[in-house]
């Protein structure tokens, strides 16, 4: 009797759907226990519970767009407002609402799920170029149940962002450089990170130039790749200029972003690579520990991550994956202030799952899946569930 082998895309889809089933059960349990809050009444439906927090900002953008005048606090600083959230995701959700008549809550979740499935499929194709099929598929299992994987079915733009990142990596692997341009432009209007793409492309250019004697790097490709890097860099600043032009305040976007960290360290200018130092100081002193401990921990984390990029398991994933991971990590170090959203902001580092999936031990793999599911539950409890005055937004 001949054994029927499922096609790769069906395997990936089934794994993804099983992961969403796990997250759905968790969300249903929490929704049944959720008290009345700023976004919903008590015990909201799954759809309503899946569109709280930043989902409401995207809802506002889809319904009314962006403000032409910035809101200001009593002490004269720019307050939290919609300019912190980019337009591509709410625009697509708005389009689905117009076509189908579905409400925001359902449309927002459906778009997230579809992009997350697409991200899973593209991620598999990125991995299969360098690792065995079994390892690639287990990486998809880990992706489907990862600690922040509930985002794949919440009204957030992360699913779309991860799909676009995976697509950029795949295009770079296949040297389809021209196609990166429209993808990175859309990415720049989905979530911040186009500057990290520009850096990754720049590293790819340097790598190919250094290896040009062993592998041809024609002048046409050099010029094209350099152009893609420059366009990506420009796309990384585009939303800042758009926000400044519409509001008449050149620093509108940065001021809006800085409003979210003011609860921790007050209103300060953004000086690249200082936010993590400020965070190391703030978090350690807030919990009664000496500042030096925070600096040591920060240094160990940064050093450990970049050492990890040179482990055999990571090297097997190819240079483009590692270029992206290094570039995005540097981008976060440059601009992001670590707080409860850190877990979500680390989601674009998902290609590391390809290396984590390398061990073939069944015991190891079962432990990793169970651990990821436990961490997923923990993330939902800490960051998604609302308990009175909640200082830990996702």
From TrEMBL:
<feature type="transmembrane region" description="Helical">
    <location>
        <begin position="363"/>
        <end position="384"/>
    </location>
</feature>
<feature type="transmembrane region" description="Helical">
    <location>
        <begin position="292"/>
        <end position="311"/>
    </location>
</feature>
<keyword id="KW-0808">Transferase</keyword>
<keyword id="KW-0812">Transmembrane</keyword>
<dbReference type="GO" id="GO:0016020">
    <property type="term" value="C:membrane"/>
</dbReference>
<feature type="transmembrane region" description="Helical">
    <location>
        <begin position="12"/>
        <end position="31"/>
    </location>
</feature>
<comment type="pathway">
    <text>Glycolipid biosynthesis; glycosylphosphatidylinositol-anchor biosynthesis.</text>
</comment>
<dbReference type="GO" id="GO:0000009">
    <property type="term" value="F:alpha-1,6-mannosyltransferase activity"/>
</dbReference>
<dbReference type="GO" id="GO:0006506">
    <property type="term" value="P:GPI anchor biosynthetic process"/>
</dbReference>
<feature type="transmembrane region" description="Helical">
    <location>
        <begin position="323"/>
        <end position="343"/>
    </location>
</feature>
<keyword id="KW-0256">Endoplasmic reticulum</keyword>
<feature type="transmembrane region" description="Helical">
    <location>
        <begin position="223"/>
        <end position="246"/>
    </location>
</feature>
<keyword id="KW-1133">Transmembrane helix</keyword>
<keyword id="KW-0472">Membrane</keyword>
<feature type="transmembrane region" description="Helical">
    <location>
        <begin position="104"/>
        <end position="124"/>
    </location>
</feature>
<dbReference type="GO" id="GO:0004376">
    <property type="term" value="F:GPI mannosyltransferase activity"/>
</dbReference>
<feature type="transmembrane region" description="Helical">
    <location>
        <begin position="136"/>
        <end position="156"/>
    </location>
</feature>
<keyword id="KW-0337">GPI-anchor biosynthesis</keyword>
<keyword id="KW-0328">Glycosyltransferase</keyword>
<dbReference type="InterPro" id="IPR007315">
    <property type="entry name" value="PIG-V/Gpi18"/>
</dbReference>
<feature type="transmembrane region" description="Helical">
    <location>
        <begin position="176"/>
        <end position="203"/>
    </location>
</feature>
<protein>
    <recommendedName>
        <fullName>Integral membrane protein</fullName>
    </recommendedName>
</protein>
């Amino acid at each position: 009797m001949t054994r029927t082998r499922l096609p790769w895309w069906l395997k990936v889809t089934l794994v993804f759907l099983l992961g969403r089933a796990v997250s759905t059960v968790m969300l249903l349990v929490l929704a049944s226990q959720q008290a009345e809050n700023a976004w919903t009444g008590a015990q909201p439906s799954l759809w309503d519970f899946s569109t709280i927090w930043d989902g409401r900002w995207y809802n506002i953008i889809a319904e009314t767009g962006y403000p032409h005048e910035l809101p200001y606090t009593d002490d004269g600083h720019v307050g939290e407002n919609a300019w912190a959230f980019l337009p591509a995701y709410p625009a697509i959700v708005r389009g689905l609402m117009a076509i189908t008549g579905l409400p925001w809550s359902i449309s927002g979740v459906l778009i997230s799920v579809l992009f997350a499935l697409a991200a899973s499929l593209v991620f598999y194709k990125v991995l299969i170029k360098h690792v065995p099929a079994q390892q690639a598929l287990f990486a998809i299992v880990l992706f489907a149940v990862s600690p922040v994987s509930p985002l794949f079915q919440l009204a957030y733009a992360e699913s779309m962002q991860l799909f676009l990142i995976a697509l950029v990596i795949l295009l770079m692997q296949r040297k389809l450089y021209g196609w990166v341009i429209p993808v990175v432009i859309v990415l720049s209007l989905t979530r911040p990170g186009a500057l990290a793409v520009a850096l990754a492309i720049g590293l790819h250019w340097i790598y190919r130039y250094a290896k040009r004697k062993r592998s041809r790097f024609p002048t046409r490709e050099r010029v094209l790749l350099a152009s893609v890097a420059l366009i990506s860099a420009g796309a990384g600043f585009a939303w800042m200029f758009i926000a400044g032009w519409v509001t008449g305040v050149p620093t509108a976007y940065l001021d809006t972003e800085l409003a979210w960290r003011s609860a921790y360290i007050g209103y300060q200018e953004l000086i690249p690579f200082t936010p993590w130092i400020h965070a190391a100081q703030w978090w350690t002193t807030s919990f009664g520990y000496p500042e030096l401990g925070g600096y040591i921990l920060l240094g160990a984390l940064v050093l450990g991550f970049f050492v990890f990029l040179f482990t055999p398991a990571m090297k097997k994933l190819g240079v483009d994956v590692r270029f992206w991971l290094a570039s995005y990590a540097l981008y976060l170090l440059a601009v992001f202030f670590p707080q409860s959203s850190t877990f979500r902001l680390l989601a674009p580092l998902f290609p590391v799952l390809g290396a984590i999936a390398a061990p073939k031990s069944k015991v190891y793999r079962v432990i990793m899946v169970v651990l990821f599911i436990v961490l997923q539950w923990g993330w939902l409890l800490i960051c998604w569930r609302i308990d009175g005055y909640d200082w830990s937004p996702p």
